[in-house]
Write a structure and sequence with these properties.
Elements: E1 3-6, E2 10-16, H1 17-30, H2 46-75, E3 80-83, E4 88-94, H3 95-115, H4 132-152
Antiparallel strand pairs: 1-2, 2-4, 3-4
């Protein structure tokens, strides 16, 4: 079970040893799912189409930059420490890094939601076996976001 505690300079995320690799692999794998579609206007003319293309390129570049930052945080050995007694990893992030992580998690969560067909929370849908990992990722990321937000609140 992942836990989050507020520190003076940020948060300390505690992850059981056997959950660290699967969690980081899931975040990396799901980070390339299609995200939110940003639309300039509903009935575009020729100029709007060009602006729409530029907007999409800018948003893709922003996503790549965000992913690079988060990947660095996930692999920076100075951010991680292993505690043998509890068999857990501790991930120390300052408040700026926490904000970046929350935005990144939200982007991934939106991508998963879109990939699942943008279901409404009140809808009961049939889910295929292929969609189960996506649904699990959507839920897990939501739990992590909630833990972080509760800790810093």
């Amino acid at each position: 079970m992942i836990t989050v505690a507020k520190t003076v300079k940020g948060v300390l995320i505690t992850i059981p040893q056997d959950e660290k690799s699967p969690l980081l692999e899931m975040l990396i794998a799901t980070s390339n799912l299609p995200g939110r579609k940003h639309v300039i206007c509903q009935s575009p003319d020729k100029d709007d189409l060009e602006r729409q293309k530029l907007l999409e390129e800018c948003m893709q570049e922003q996503h790549r930059n965000n992913f690079r930052k988060i990947r660095y945080l996930m692999t920076d050995k100075t951010k991680w420490s292993f505690h043998a007694k509890s068999q857990t990893w501790h991930w120390k992030l300052n408040f700026e890094e926490v904000e970046e992580l929350l935005m990144f998690l939200n982007t991934i969560r939106i991508g998963l939601w879109i990939h699942l067909g943008s279901p409404e929370t009140t809808e009961v849908q049939a889910i295929s076996i292929e969609q189960l990992p996506l649904l699990g990722g959507l839920h897990l990321i939501g739990v992590i976001q909630e833990e972080i937000l509760n800790a810093i609140d």
